[in-house]
Specification:
This protein has 6 helices and 5 strands. The chain has a 5-stranded parallel sheet, with helices on both faces. It is 43% helix and 20% strand. The chain is globular and about 45 Å long. β1, α1 and β2 form a beta-alpha-beta unit. It has one domain: HUPs (Rossmann fold, 3-Layer(aba) Sandwich). The chain is of the alpha/beta class. The structure holds 4'-phosphopantetheine. The site of 4'-phosphopantetheine has 11 residues, from β1 and α4.
Length: 156
């Protein structure tokens, strides 16, 4: 049975991310949702807070999920450790694809692992973690864009 790794900063985990995780779980017997430290980003939530929120959100969904964080090293090493068959990435626009394609190619070059791109549902097409944080900071309603527990965390 196939194992997938769905990595990202998830700062915070949005309804778009949730949709991709749920759809990946229909294709893979296990989906590792992995909070990866991205040194080019200053996170709003600590990795353990993100893991906690994602775990709570996914506990209500169908699918076999493992939620983890990965602080340093190559993502492909995490994939090897868990015997992953594929990486999963959500793609909203061609901008996402331009960003994701070289990562998919280098990950395959390094380890042979394939990346499966899942097209975002257009309903979440404009939702990004960055926009959600900005709207929340300026007092806007973000309840349509993120799970409830994330909205509560952002309001604090
Ligand atoms: O949500 P993000 O920040 O766009 O996710 C990018 C992420 C964390 C998946 C990417 O930066 C990554 O894979 N980092 C791990 C380090 C690594 O393996 N780098 C080399 C191949 S991309």
């Amino acid at each position: 049975m196939a194992i997938a790794v769905y990595p990202g900063s998830f700062d915070p985990f949005t309804l778009g991310h949730l949709d991709i995780a749920i759809r990946a779980a229909k294709m893979f017997s296990t989906v590792h949702v992995v909070v990866v430290h991205n040194p080019s980003k200053k996170p709003r939530f600590s990795a353990s807070q993100r893991v906690q929120m994602i775990t709570e959100v996914l506990s209500k969904e169908k699918g076999n999920f493992v939620v983890n964080s990965f602080e340093s090293g190559l993502l492909v090493d995490y994939c090897k450790t868990v015997n992953a068959d594929a990486l999963v990435k959500g793609v909203r626009t061609n901008v996402d694809l331009d960003y994701e394609l070289p990562m998919a190619q280098v990950n395959r070059d390094l380890s042979g692992i394939e990346t499966v791109f899942i097209p975002a549902d257009p309903i979440h097409g404009f939702v990004s973690s960055t926009l959600v944080k900005q709207v929340a900071d300026l007092g806007g309603d973000i309840s349509k864009y993120v799970p409830q527990i994330v909205a509560e965390g952002l309001r604090k």
